[in-house]
Batch of 3 targets.
Target 1
Amino acid sequence: MNILNYAREIKRKIKTHQTIFIVGHQNLDLDAIGSALGLHYIIQKYRKESYIVIDDQVHELGVEKIISEQPKEIFISSQDIEEKKTKKNLLIIVDTNKINLLSNPKILDDFEDIIVIDHHQTNEYTINRGLLIVDKESSSTCEMITQILSHYRIKVPPEIATIILSGIVLDTNNFVLKTQAKTYFTAYYLASFGADPKKVQYYLKQNIKEYIARQKVITNIEIVKEKYAVATGVEKIKYKREELAKIASTLIQFNDIEASFVIGWNQDNKIGISARSEGRLNVGKVMEKLGGGGDDHDAATQIEEDSLQTVKDKLLAILNK
């Protein structure tokens, strides 16, 4: 479902609403914040009021850097929506199409008009209201937003182009996964606006203590069917969502590994699984069986359980079928 098929309708909706609110999934990553800021910039060009709704209390390092660099007034919480609303309001959801992955699912009740822009596959949790635009062939939502920028012929400043490029680099694991000709063109297009590869790496920079902790997780690994890597964190340690994702991205680079799964406690006191795949195994379908979702290459879930071993046993039962 190419987003350009909906370019006219997206523009029409932006122009016919006074205030537009943009929201991503819980535990924002670079693709979510990058696509939200890119969309915010598009909306500003049409002289409409725009806010990015964020309810997360803790952010991954790259997202925290980006938020600190942007004007504070563009970010609000869902509790602030009511006072910002006008007569005609539009909600645009980016980088997820699942109601259960929103920080505040009740936000949907506050809007009659909704647009969903995402690149992950749909399932029973998919939001079935408004205009649903899901392009599973795109590497990232940032790639989709860049296509809209190009179609509308809107130029973005170098700092915004850099943030959008960061989302693409993250979701493609440095152009290894989900990368097509249009992905490279998108990167070139952003570079033509001054997107800075060095600044991209700044957003992707890692904390050395977290890096060491990740290496310890990698040592606790089990290979299933000689092609699936399952790594488990330490029972008493809490890991950031992006830490589990980085470990999964590392494991997929090893010889003969077609898919990777990393299990660990997260900061919400739930057990998270981050999954990556070369594409032969649809990890999105695997995570759906455990209450999560994603796509062929990138997926995750959160589970309320008592131990990592219990969750690992559930995952192994699925992989061994």
Note: The domain at 209-319 is CATH 3.10.310.30 (Diaminopimelate Epimerase; Chain A, domain 1).
Target 2
Amino acid sequence: MSVIDVFGLIGILLIIGFLADFLFKKTNFPDILILLAIGFVIGPVLKIIDPAQIAPFSQLIASLALVVIIFNAGIEFEFTRVLSSAPRTLILVLFGVAFSIAAIAAPAYYFFHWKLLDSILLGTIVGGTSSAIVMPLMSRARVPEQVSALLSLESVLNSPVVIVIALVLLKSIVAGEAGIALSSVGVDILTQFLLGLSVGVITGLLWLWILTLLQNEDYNDILTLAVVFLLYFAVEKINGSGVIFALVFGLILGNGVSVGKLLKLKRTAEATEIMKRFTAQIYFFIKTFFFIYLGLIITFGDPMLAALGIFMALTLLLVRFIAVLFTSIGNHTLLSNKGILTMMLARGESAAVLVQIVVAAGIANGSVYPDMIMAVIITTVVFSALGVLIFGKKTDEGEIESEPA
């Protein structure tokens, strides 16, 4: 493929990405399914692009997608809108992630005889919901504000949780520490969380003040993104969690005025609409190419792996229902909307990114991850889209009132 051909292909793919996003907004048909299908067609089906040519860059693509997706989720999220839902959201995140990990890890360990850390890693990768799918769906579903806020906040919070746990587990597996005590893994996870959180808060507040000095500069949005990459690198170098940093940094910038009032800061700023739009455009670009790339490497050469992935998705649906029931105890609004709360289990960017990192690490059983996890992603995204059609009536009317959390 010549350089000119590459330019033409990029143009076509970006147009497809725009049309997929447009269709998602108008019909609730998830755009990542379209992007995955396009990648599958131009790769394994028509063989226009050879996935082997892109394979050396897979970990770079995955890591870049990880940072941009998490930071964009933070900067776009209006935390004050969902603050009242935070307690129940933490319960849903805790039970949802824990039940999902256990439900997938137990069969892998007892029936397929995987090692313990490998089994937990598999469960962790599919343990969190996708903000890229859930939040757009919730913005167009006619459900109580409490339900929408709960699901949106959950999708933002649990992705970093599963990413940090998965990366710590992967590091232990690669280092040959399969016999390591789970308590040691837990300490490592807690350390990474605290370091990422601390650096995110401190640098986020500092950067809010710096933005007050740079308000009239044309390229402060580009400088901000550069700082995100630089600090992500620094946090990872000190064995902290770069994804937790990126999320917290984004949350502070996206809610700068509210944070300033809460801390009684004399001078503060907030990410401008231009900065949010710039970040969203970078996110769109990365997401389009990342999910098309994933479509390129899908083979489904072993139907059994795809079938296992579908079974895993059904298992995740069952345990999510249980987690939703625990979360909804004592709240009539949540109990009456348990259907859509259960169906919003779409796995997406975090699972897809982690798969690429796992494959690049070359661990045992790594070759079975792509087809199996892609089947989980596709099935759960379909579940969520059906959930909106069944339980969430699309409308442009005002929000529905609901009881406090």
Note: Residues 182-213 form the longest helix (32 residues).
Target 3
Amino acid sequence: MSFYAPPPIVTAEVFAIVPDRLNKSGHPSTWVDANHPGSRLGSFLEGPAFDRAGNLYVVDIPFGRILRFCPDGACEVAGEYEGWPNGLAIHRDGRVFIADYRLGIMVLDPATGKVTPVVTHCQSESFKGCNDLTFSRNGDLYFTDQGQTGVHDPSGRVYRLTAAGKLERLIDNGPSPNGLVLDPEEKVLYVAMTRANCLWHMPLKDGGVSKAGVFGYLPGIHGPDGLAVDEAGNLAVCHARVGIVWLLSPLGEPLYRIQANDGVSRLTNAAYGGPERKTLYICDSYGGRILTAPLPVAGVRLYSHS
């Protein structure tokens, strides 16, 4: 991004915070012990997605919770189970599909709060650690299997679970595949390769991936996390540990730099919402907050609203 002039800054404001009654700071968590030893995280939010009623669902990884923020910002537990939910996407029928790091692909019934398995392995081989997922308009489900892969072990996978129930492995050489999103025409799958500090551009052709390449790199030692796309094909890229969401054009040009007004945040994932889908809702994972930023172009209409 050093080839371009610094983009204008958009300040993100606080929309909602996990309330004290749901804050689990100090509660035991094997996920916290493994990933953030010594911290007292009360939640770790990722995977935002909206249902048809305008409710925002997010995962709380260390405590196995799916939280639901109402349009007025009120927060409640939509589901809780023994897992590490890492990302979610909402089906057209209202079911909430979850990428669980430990268990595979799960599904939440929002009416009952019950969580059940969908896909737990590929031909009897366990997943490395599922991270994020997204639906295409025909109901196919794409998801990343990141685990502990990286440039030292580029064996992360990206899968497609077709609407007919067939599981297909698209790649198995990813250095830490994380967030993913389809372009507006659904001809290209973008995947954040976090530990390689880059974004992959993966054209979809003849049922697979053809001529994949690198779309762009992020500076520093920490790479991209969650992704979102608007109707013009611009990519919102969460640069988590830096606390920035970059909005990049389809050519990779930085259009905006989105950051919290207090400068203290870990921005991991984002989703477009609001009446015209022109507001970017962003997870500040460390702070237990949802931030919002106004943007000029509407986000792509997702499968949950199609």
Note: The mean pLDDT is 95.
